[in-house]
Amino acid sequence: MENPGLFTAIHRPGDKSPSQVDFVVRTPADLVRIQRQEAAEICNVFGMSMAHATMMLRTMRWNREKLIERYIDDAERVLRDAGIADIETDAARPTVLPLRHQLCEICFSNEPNVPMYALACDHAFCVECYNEYLSHKIQDEGLSARIQCPGTRCPNVVDEPSVEMLAHPVDYVKFQRLLLRSFVDENQVMKWCPAPGCEYAVECHTPQSALDSTVPTVKCRCGHEFCFGCGYANHQPCICNLTQLWLRKCMDDSETSTWISVNTKECSRCRSIIEKNGGCNHMTCRKCSYEFCWVCMGPWAEHGRTWYHCNRYGEQSSQAARDSQEKSRSSLKRYLHYYNRYANHEQSARLDHQLYLKTEKRMESMQQKSDLSWIEVQFLRDAVDTLVECRMTLKWTYALAFYLEPGNLTTLFEDNQCDLEMATEQLSGLLERPLERKSIPALRQQILDKTAYVASRRQILLDDTAEGLADGRWRFNMSLIN
Amino acid sequence: MSTPTRRRLMRDFKRLEQDPPTGVSGCPNPDNIMLWEAVIFGPEDTPFEDGIFKLRLTFDETYPNKPPNVRFSSRMFHPNVYASGELCLDILQNRWSPTYDVASILTSIQSLLHDPNPNSPANSEAAQLYRENRKEYLRRVAETVEESWV
């Protein structure tokens, strides 16, 4: 590369920054292959059938080492937990018992010459009754890995080859899909991509216990970026715990508290929230029957004869009443300060779609108005991508900042945030600027520079926060233990 | 019309007649085999002794892969019976197996009268009295026993 510009210098491929984690995107085919590999390893060690090995792995949540250890310790218990009656039977080739040799306890029919089937526990049922039973379990109850033998309180599990032989093909297809789903759900290093319609899973080895010090953000092949810890859309640099708290808080009280702060005051004595919907300034609290003046919040008794006309704003007692009101409102104000900024970026991000459409048009008109080629106007799309990313990051910095204890580090963080915010708004402004033939080359240069600048500011902010989390540098104004 | 469900219910009825378990009885509605009326006699040496408790069992075509809907039509005072007469019993929910039949359902309910499970109460008042004020519990149960004779 002749001229590695700033932009390429930031996106070093393969070189991991502190705010990134390693992960792999898995397709459904990959998942099947991984399951086979894991089971094959167990088969190699203990020499049992694939179906049995898979069943045992499932009960251990696909933790191979744990299974091997437990199996050596107490094989009988592992088999019992996995619902395997007899490890010696060849689960790979289930065979139908030729003729009725015992009463089927589902239909109790005594018709002769009906094919029956039994697991190693010898509870035999008509093949037809089995088929109905499996269909009910798979379709109605959504069970897969833990379908038990129909026998009364029999703990044995119907293995996959048996299901394949006995169930209706439609039921078997669903059975396999459920198995695959449970493989990822039970696996601690795997998660399904939560984007609608996406069928990929992501493998990431950041443990749940590290979520207080990292934000493991992964990007699915479908383009969706999400947090591996909690499954929520990318919320870097705010950690999962605080993200949940913040979202809950916003859901509870954002709109309501705005309305309350605009339209109500609190009774100076009992703190009941009062909305004045008419009448004079002489207020009597419904709850504690305290009488006060709506204008100065002081006790009404001191108003003497100047009823309905308050000129006591500066008096000591009314000042005190307002001060204590101020205090209880200031925490609300602080929250609203952060919330409004958070909501603003969220709102802008919601308008993304329009911005992309608009950019598409601008790219066309830029090609017509200047001698830039298609490839040369792609920088606009990059700029929009960066803008959107920055808005997402900024949004979550406000949630994080709300929970930060004031201090030098917090000031530094807020300075970084401020820098990024300003640069982001400037970039947003540049993208809105009208296109004129003469100024296009200059504008292009400006946008390129700004894009590179905000991308680097964003990375700096994310890396610094991530390092701070890893070192335990941040002080939060609340305990993280839920 | 003969379906597997109906055939199976016929067989359940036959078994209940030929080999009746003690203290329970039941029979399908004369014109609808999917609707059963049953009676459980309060087991000896329990507060429910001498009670004649009536139940109604409603089956649909998913039987025996799914349990029937079972509810007491007599008023009950028992930690695991809801006010509506429905029961909180494992084999009628998640522990159901298609090998159960009407006889085994009725005997299971009978043994539930024997051994209430106050830890998963359907009637919290009954559960609390059962644990903390056995005398009052017995009195309330005795009331329902008397009511059941009418």
UniProtKB/TrEMBL annotation, chain A:
This is RBR-type E3 ubiquitin transferase. Its EC number is 2.3.2.31. Gene3D superfamilies: 1.20.120.1750, Zinc/RING finger domain, C3HC4 (zinc finger) (3.30.40.10). The lineage of its organism: Eukaryota, Fungi, Fungi incertae sedis, Zoopagomycota, Kickxellomycotina. It holds the Pfam family IBR_1. GO terms for molecular function: ubiquitin protein ligase activity; zinc ion binding. Signal peptide: none annotated. Transmembrane segments: none annotated. Residues 100-314, 104-153 form the RING-type domain. PROSITE patterns: TRIAD, ZF_RING_1, ZF_RING_2. InterPro entries: Ariadne, ARIH1-like_UBL, E3_UB_ligase_RBR, IBR_dom, TRIAD_supradom, Znf_C3HC4_RING-type, Znf_RING, Znf_RING/FYVE/PHD. Keywords: Metal-binding, Repeat, Transferase, Ubl conjugation pathway, Zinc, Zinc-finger. GO terms for biological process: protein ubiquitination. It catalyses: [E2 ubiquitin-conjugating enzyme]-S-ubiquitinyl-L-cysteine + [acceptor protein]-L-lysine = [E2 ubiquitin-conjugating enzyme]-L-cysteine + [acceptor protein]-N(6)-ubiquitinyl-L-lysine.
UniProtKB/TrEMBL annotation, chain B:
Signal peptide: none annotated. Residues 1-25 are annotated as: Disordered. Keywords: ATP-binding, Nucleotide-binding, Transferase, Ubl conjugation pathway. Pfam families: UQ_con. InterPro entries: Ub_conjugating_enzyme (IPR050113), UBC (IPR000608), UBQ-conjugating_AS (IPR023313), UBQ-conjugating_enzyme/RWD (IPR016135). Residues 4-150 form the UBC core domain. One of its GO terms (molecular function) is ATP binding. One of its GO terms (biological process) is DNA repair. Its EC number is 2.3.2.23. The active site is at residue 88. Belongs to the ubiquitin-conjugating enzyme family. PANTHER family: UBIQUITIN-CONJUGATING ENZYME E2. This is E2 ubiquitin-conjugating enzyme. It comes from Dimargaris cristalligena.
